[in-house]
Structure formats: C-alpha cells, structure tokens
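pinging the channel bc i need a second pair of eyes. not urgent but kinda urgent?? the chain im working w is below, pasted from the shared doc
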Amino acid sequence: MSAAVEPLTRPARLAPGARVAVVAPSGPVPEDRLAAGLDVLRGWDLDPVAAPHARDTHPRFDYLAGTDEDRARDLQSAWCDPSVAAVLCARGGYGAARMVDLLDWDAMRAAGPKVFLGFSDITTLHEAFANRLGLVTLHGPMVTAADFLKNARAQEHLRATLFEPESVREIASAGRPLVGGRARGVTLGGCLSLLAADVGAAGSRTGARGGLLFLEDIGEEAYRIDRCLTQLTRAGWLDGVAGVALGSWAECEPYERLRPLLAERLGGLGVPVVEEFGFGHCDGALTVPFGIPGHLDADAGTLRLDIPALA
C-alpha cells in the first residue's frame, strides 16, 4: 500500500522588489515572449533575471532548450542562489524528464524553500520537488504563456497567490460534478501523461492515496488518455485517492467524446470528481498550489485551502 499524500513545507510569499529567476527546463523559449514576460514581472515590482541558458536551443534536438546539463545547471544555480526568492519556468513542451536526475537534490535541499512555478511538462518537476524536497509548488501560468502575458484573470490569480495568498484560500471555478460530493485531502497532480510516464521512475511518488488529484493534458487522443488512466489504475497509483479535479483538455478530442471516458475510468473510484475546473492549458487558467491540505466540493466547483499556499 502506498503512503498517504502528506502536506508539504510552504515557501515564503513574494514581496515587492524580490528577485526571481526565469528558467527553461523543457522546450526552447521565443525571445519576444520571454522579453514580454519579464516586463510583466517588472510591472509586479519584481526583479526578474533570465537564466544563462534560458534562450538556448539544443544543437541537435530543436525541441529542447539547450543541453540537458545546461538546463539542469540553470535550475540548480537559480535555486541555490540565496538572492533568488522564486524560480519561474518559462514554458513547458518536453525535456524536464531528461534533466531531473542531473540535479543535485542534496544541494537544493540545503538551499531551503522558495517558490517554484510551472505546469504541463513541468509536472515532472512538481513531483520531484514534492518527493525529494518536500516543498509546496505552484501549478500555474508560465512566463511566456499567452495566459501570463495577456489574460487578466490568470495574471491576477497568479499575482494574488504569489503576494497575497490568504486572499485566494478559496479557488472557485465554473466546474461541475462528474461525480458529486465533497472530499478532503492534500493537492497534487498536473499533466496526466507526465504523471503516467513518471510511474516507476527513481524517486517518484508511489501513489495518490489521500490526495486531491488535479489532472489535465494537451494534444492527446482519447485512446491515449485512456491508456494513461489505465496505467495509473493498473499500477495502483489511484488507490485511495480522496477526490479528483479535471482541468482543460486543449487540442484533445472534443470534450463530449472525452467525458464518457473520464466518467468510466474515474467514476469507479467512488470519490468526488469535478470537471472543467479551469486550470491547465486553457484561457484564464487558475493557479493551484500542490502540497496544501484542503476541501474539494465537486458540486460547488470549489477548492478551499486549509492554509494559504505560501507562508
């Protein structure tokens, strides 16, 4: 039996003037979008700095932002820099799984807690930060994402989470119940295909027992979503999960085709499941902290955090 998901250590909230590092652990970053994202951060009275290799592209594999070693070095250096209060990911794509085991987790643990933000491919790092460092992380819009750059709702929810986390203790969505009810647990999750790919990897989580599991994905056909959910089920990873929140399924098959699949694969868990919760690859995406205890109300479409996301 897997151990229950436990609450994690919260990093400190950001204050005006805080220095934040922007890193690219996955795909290459368009220069114009990076410049625009840094401008948004400056507008929040932060002091952003792009990591040395944030603008790189791998010499052979153009879907990677620089070599695995350079991407890992950027993340570790930023994390271990005592002047940096937060490490923000520039974008997802693919590549985090290639560099995660190159990080010196002992050195990063010794550096202490700080804010970490990202989603999509960054799911691999959310899991690593939870399992290896025991830290709360933020699943939210990244620095070069359209939401971060142009969507007022997404910007404000993220900004409030970073600076005034007590103001967003209740995360209210337009979600509706796929399976009604209420559940209490500790938040975790991210991109479904990345969670499935992480099963069995060194240092990975053995299950979501006692957790409020947040799932979303992008660009997957129904049979591949089925395969990922089936993999998590067969691995026992979903045993004892307390509740499930489903986010966006952007560029997947039409939701009316996915909904019966999600109901069939998740309805048998016997726990509340809320759909269309409004996080992930969607306009106005909500920022969801992982590692915080709370209450999920599938009927009301709300997550009530027991404590603010950041200390």
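so The chain has ten helices and 14 strands. and Residues 31-43 form the longest helix (13 residues). — does that match what u expected or am i reading it wrong
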